[in-house]
Amino acid sequence: MSTREQQKEQRRMDILAAGLDLFIRKGYSATKIKDIAEQVGMSVGLLFHYFESKEKLYEELISIGIDGPRDMMKLEHTEPLEFFQNVAKYILYNLKEETFTAKMFVFMWQVYFTESVSEEIKRKLKDFDIYQPTAELIKKGQEKGTIREGDPNALAIAFWGSIQGIALQLALIPELPCPDSEWIVDILRK
Fold it and tell me: What is the mean pLDDT of the chain?
């Protein structure tokens, strides 16, 4: 990638980060495209070279929030418990090292409760399910004897709910200590 392409990609990421920050602080409706441009230090016209509208920027953030977890579930994993260890370690590391990740958890939580999103966004959210594939992995781990007994769906909720809660706290107060990923995995470990 050339230096110019790297700069353009960095600028795009800066716009996404500014939009994310403003959407979680002010909400979608109260955030103006002018606010995002000002936070990034560019003109509104230049911002439109990257995203044709505020809605497209919002949709891109939602796609990032859906695609990341969905891609994680596609990873090859031989042992379910090992998968959960890797996922917890990866997410908690990113929550502490980059505020974007923690803010994405807040953002996606808000999006689920926003009634005024487009039909396309509603469809994307409806099609996104992290719990079902997680519950399937938990069942496999239970069969192997590495994951505790119990309702796989409830265990999936406990695992992701713990990560969500940690993300919300770290987004609010980034200087808090980050829990050890093994503590989260212990929710599942037999």
Answer: 92
Give the three-state DSSP class for 120. helix
As a whole number of angstroms, the distance between CA 35 and CA 78 comes to 47
Angle between helices 99-112 and 119-127 (to 10 degrees): 110
What's the N-to-C CA distance of the chain in angstroms? 46
* CA dist., res. 157 & res. 138, Å (int): 11
What share of residues in the chain are helix, strand, coil (percent, to 5)?
Answer: 75, 0, 25
For 36, half-sphere exposure in the C-beta direction (CA atoms, 13 angstrom radius) is 33
Summarize pLDDT for 94-152 with one digit per residue, the tens.
Answer: 999 988 999 999 999 999 888 877 888 888 888 888 899 999 999 999 999 999 999 99
Q: How far apart are CA 44 and CA 129, in angstroms?
A: 35
Buried b (16+ CB within 10 A) or exposed e, 75-101: eebeebbebbbebbeebbebbbeebbb
CA-to-CA separations, 153 to 5, 139, 141, 161, 181, in angstroms, rounded: 44, 9, 13, 12, 20
pTM of the model: 0.86
